[in-house]
Amino acid sequence: MLIDKIRKLAKDNKVMVFCDMDGVIAEYDTTKKHDIRNNVPNTYFNSRPLNHTISQLKKIKKIKNVEIGILSACYFNEQKQEKLQWLKLHANIFEDKNINIVVYENETFTQKTKDLLKVNKILEIVKNKNVVPILIEDNHNIIEATNKVIKNCAVHVSKLID
User: Fold this and answer.
1) Which of 63, 83, 118, 134 sits 20 to 30 Å CA-CA off 75?
2) Mean pLDDT over residues 138-162, rounded?
3) Alpha helices, DSSP H only, in 62-157?
């Protein structure tokens, strides 16, 4: 199980666990894709919290040498604000300095490089730090792209389920 892997890594290393939001700690409703792309207000804010995952992250946060953070993405700045409000309401376990939300409208990328945005952010955050990064993600393309850049970094959220 992932928590055991993190405990083992944290015995000899500092570990930074990055957690995606949509589909990981917040329900990702695929019927809302149109609303997301069209920036319909409260689409993210009204997402149902995935309490089991949040509970597992609370356990991970208690492990010595482990820091937890958010690494999520959205299309618009307004959606970022909704996600920040959602976190305060449903998952207020992350320090502000560890909340990273990539906003596509502020980034330069192609469809080919979009899956690398999160791993690039991880590399930026851990640069010059002696830390083992782990990304908990639900998107298989992002997991694959991340693991090509940082070996064994990204894992599917299902690894958190007992």
Assistant:
1) 134
2) 95
3) 77-90, 117-126, 140-149
